[in-house]
Each structure stands twice: as C-alpha cells, then as structure tokens.
Amino acid sequence: MKEKLILRPTQIISVFEALSTIPKNLDVIKAKEIWEKSDRGKGNTVAIIDTGVEKEHPNLVSNIIGGYNFTDDDGGNPEIFRDYRGHGTHVAGIVAACECENNEGIVGVAPKSKLLILKAIDRNGVGSYENLVNALRYAINWTGPNGEKVDVINMSLGGSAHNEDLYKAIKQAREKGIVLVSAAGNHGDGNHQSFERSYPGYYKEVIQIGSVTQNLKPSVFSNTNVNLDFVAPGENVISTHLNNKFVELTGTSMAAPYVSGGVALVLNLIDRSQPAMIPYLIYQYLVDRVKKLDYPISQVGNGLIQLT
User: Fold this and answer.
1) Residue 225 exposed, middle or buried by CB count within 10 Å (0-12, 13-18, 19+)
2) Which of 56, 65, 180, 51 is nearest to 112 (CA)?
3) Which end of the chain is more exposed for a tag (fewer CB within 10 A), N or C?
4) Which UniProt keywords apply (predicted)?
C-alpha cells in the first residue's frame, strides 16, 4: 500500500472571477441533446474521489449530498473534506455544476445529479492506494439521507502499479452495478506505440478516458494503451475552482468527468432492473453512439464520447 496516487491536471491556464456560460464541450459530447429526456441526471449520485471540494461554491453547493475525508488534512477529521488544491472542485463542476437562478457561472454535464465528495488526496497532492481503497469501499456501502446509492465513481487520479486490494474493491463496486470511470493519465509521449499504464484506469472493469484537443486530435500528454476505452475533451476546460472562481485546466483529469457526467444522464435512459447489468448496458450505449476518430485505438479507444 505504499504506492502513491498521482493527480492528472497540468497547469492553470486562466482564472475567471465570474462567468455566464454553458461550456461548448457539452455540445462536443452532445449532452444537451438528452438533457430533457434524462432530466439532467436527476436521481443519480456521482462519487468524486479526489482532493475534496469547495462546498460553498455557488455552482456546486446545492448538488453536494455528502462527503468524507480519508486524508490527514484538518486533523484527519472525516467530516471536513475541504479542497486545498482546486482539482476536485474542478472535476466536480464538470460533472454537476448546477444551473444557478442568477445564470452566473457554468453548467455541468448532469446539473441535476448529486455529488458525493470522497477526499483521498491531501493538500500536498499526495494520496495512497489505501486512501483510494477506503474511498471505494465507502462509496460501495454509502446510503444517502433519502436512501440514495452511488451510481457512478469518477477517479481523476492513478498510480503506476497494480494493487490487489484496489482491484478487489473495483470488482466489488462493479458487481454492485456502479459504473467506474477513470482518467488515463498524463504521461503520454505522443507515440501510439509506446504504452503508459495507470491504475485503476487500466483495469478492464473501469472505463478509461483519454484526452483530445479542441480539434479532436489526441492530446500529446494523454496515456496510450490497449485498454483505453474512449476519449473526451481535456484541454483548456473551464470549470469551478477555489475562492468561488472558475479556471481553465488541461489533463485527462478533465476528460474523465465529462464521461462520468454523461453516464449520470444515460442512467435515466436504460433498464436498471438488474443492477449487475448496468455497467454493461452503459458501456454498450456509449460504444453504439461513439464518434470514430481516425487515429490508432491505443490513442482514442473506441472514439469520442457522444451521448446521442
């Protein structure tokens, strides 16, 4: 359990005090086209395993249903899942930034879904497989105030080595019908023949997401490997951040939550009578609608996520 987790963003590009926009990337993945029939993800909960969240952010506060701190930050108090880095806050906003009454800020992919914040990375950007495993187990067993359960888990993080405890937790979550989504990682070199592996994304039970540019070209930094499933926008992504601000970040960390939010929408369109089948049905839905890209599978997997 000594293996460290690694965050997946690159540098902050721009900081915005205020915005009033629906991100263009929602059109890139065709999210808005299923908003009405999916009720914008209402009734579904996405667990964000990350650096915590700025829970007072006006574009997030109404969608945060709970949280837990697995790090030593704030004296290890499990009830304080404050984000000191902004990474988890940014990821959460991509998934489910809410539609504010004053129309300020941004809107997430599934703006009526709920967010369970599981802090596994500390203020120094350091985590462990133990933190990640504990967060996964918490998500598997969590019940919300009105009987809610976790439907999707987003992991914009990873480590370089396989871990048996981690893999066991991943399989347990999937068996419960939870859809697992993870960033591919940012150690790519632009060569589709050189493979870079990051766990848990590399596990076949997890939907592993790479990044593409705004021109739908594979991002140079995005990990390439034979288990890559899909790609999504991952460069110059605007989302929520610390101090009630909005920033642009780049990385596969930003691509993964587009898919997690998309899954929160699609869950309202499929038959969920058999929980164990849900991950299969979601994957098939995504494969059937994907936009094929003219690049090697190791760079783009099945292609660009399309929700309709």
Assistant:
1) buried
2) 65
3) N
4) Calcium, Hydrolase, Metal-binding, Protease, Secreted, Serine protease
State in Å, rounded, how far the first CA of the chain is from the last one: 41
Query: Over the stretch 140-175, which tens digit does the pLDDT of each residue have?
Result: 999 999 999 999 999 999 999 999 999 999 999 999
Q: What is the DSSP letter of 246?
A: E
pTM reported for the whole predicted model: 0.95
**Considering its fold, how many domains does the chain have in total?**
1
User: What is the per-residue pLDDT across 178-218, written as a single tens digit (0 to 9) for each?
Assistant: 999 999 999 999 889 989 999 999 999 999 999 999 999 99
Q: Which amino acid does the sequence have at 73? A: D
Domain that holds residue 122: 4-305
Residue of 57, 83, 87, 229 marked catalytic: 87
Q: What residues are paired with 5 via a beta bridge?
A: 127
Q: Catalytic: 90?
A: no
- Alpha-carbon distance 183 to 81, whole Å? 21
Question: Angle at the Cα of 288 (from 170 to 50), degrees rounded to 5?
Answer: 30
Is 219 noted as a catalytic residue in this protein? Answer: no
CB atoms within 10 A of CB 101: 8
* Residue 123 Cα distances to 82, 242, 281, angstroms: 9, 13, 37
Catalytic residue (one of 50, 83, 122, 151): 50
Give me the catalytic one of 113, 219, 239, 253: 253
